[in-house]
Amino acid sequence: MKIINKEKIKHLHLIQSLWFHLERKWRIKFIFLLFLMIIVAFSEVLSIGAVLHFLAAITSPSSLFKHELAQPFIHIMGIDSAGELLLPLTVLFSILIVIAAFLRMALIWANSIFAYSSGGDLGIEIYRKVIHQPYLQHTLKNSSEVINGILIKTNAVTQLTILPILTIVSGIFMITAVLIVFVIISPSVALIVYGSVGFIYFLVMK
Question: Residues 70, 130: contact at Cβ < 8 Å?
Fold first, then answer.
């Protein structure tokens, strides 16, 4: 357990060090990336909600037609009967799915661009520091090995640290958004589900 805690502390220190080594422009871009993650998370929640309403319109349109929360949508669309719900809900469902998929692809693209571009800048900074070393240091090292080492370490930081961190953060936003919706819809079910998941995680990590 102590070994695991030490490893976690070490990883947190490395992440903190990496953050302070990033240029200011990348820190600002990371904040904008967080906003995109939040938008994508709630678009996914909306698409999940659209699936549930779409299934309700197919299986039990009369119940959905009488539902209190559906009344504003019904009045706006000018729907007079339960049978008329399917077409507008199908269109709305399709639009939300397309938007959610587009935003998800945009987030994947933005994460990749951020990870590889910021990693590339770190590599350039490392190389700049290497070439400004005293001449004696250069005579003791093979230049091709130095360049190869910089490339390997930069790729490792990009693929094994920056990109996974972005994936984890976006996942956290997704889970949080779903949790908020669950709490609004049914607090008791949300408490049971997430309490069970948290308990299992605690047992595994113990």
Answer: no
